[in-house]
Amino acid sequence: MLVLGVLVLIPFIWMISSSFKIQADLFKYPINWIPQNPILSNYEEVWGGKYKFALFYWNSAKITFFTVVGSIITSSLAGFAFAKLNFKGRDLIFLMYLATMIIPAQVLLVPRFILFDRVGLVNTHWAVILPGIFTVFGTFLMRQFFSTIPNELLEAAKADGAGFFRIYWQICLPLTKPAIVTLLILTFTWHWNEYENPLIFLRSSELFTLPIGLSSFVDEYGANYSLIMAASVSALLPLIIVVAIFQRFFVEGIASSGLKG
């Protein structure tokens, strides 16, 4: 596993190393993994040049933040309802809701575009944020975790006069931190790297997200791989930070929700 891990890391190490090299040193053989004369001009050109990289970064951060927060709220509420509330047709509704996962996302693009165009959301960030707030997988993940909480704990809270929302907010939700962090990491990773929806729904360059901006950046600087590597490292850094901070909770959440294996 250690050898496999090193093999997986090699392309990323090369990317980071290349971002500190001049173009002439990029493809020298043997590879200089540690640049002899490291430079920062590539990052200065990416962030301070004519390209609106900082704006794309901000757009991605804003969209990802609202999507992550919204998906955690809706998924935890729905997961709690499907796991702990008894109402008629609960299991059938959950099964039908879960069955929507087999529908390819591309099938929904045309009707979604027509709907958003009629309500005036096309070429706004809400056209990208709103579909990501409601996630079937997030609901399934939270339901699996809420199901592990003993019903006796909820019955004791009811005996003390707690309502359903108070039980959800003060008792169940604090116990689901690993599942919430798992959903946070998965949602953050997906929407930070999302390319298809921003490409379809966003038309103005001022609204472009980082993946769209990187694509345009590659088109413009296709021959300058040092700049492309610097831009790619900058785009990858938030993902590395988020996973590094929440990795322990992520592993615990996957194991506790019954998804391991």
Quick structural gist:
With 261 residues, this protein is mostly helical.
List the main descriptive attributes of the protein structure presented here.
transmembrane, membrane, disordered C terminus, 261 residues, ABC transporter permease subunit
Could you characterize what this model shows?
This protein has 261 residues and is mainly alpha-helical. It has 13 helices and no strands. Helix 3 packs antiparallel against helix 10 and helix 10 (177-192) packs antiparallel against helix 13. The two termini are 17 Å apart. Its main location: membrane. InterPro entries: MetI-like (IPR000515), MetI-like_sf (IPR035906). Residues 57-246 form the ABC transmembrane type-1 domain. Pfam families: BPD_transp_1.
Mean pLDDT across residues: 86
Low-confidence stretches: 257-261
Gap between N and C termini: 17 Å
Structural class: mainly alpha
Q: Tell the overall outline.
A: globular
Domain ABC transmembrane type-1: 57-246
Keywords: Cell membrane, Membrane, Transmembrane, Transmembrane helix, Transport
Main location: membrane
Pfam families: BPD_transp_1 (PF00528)
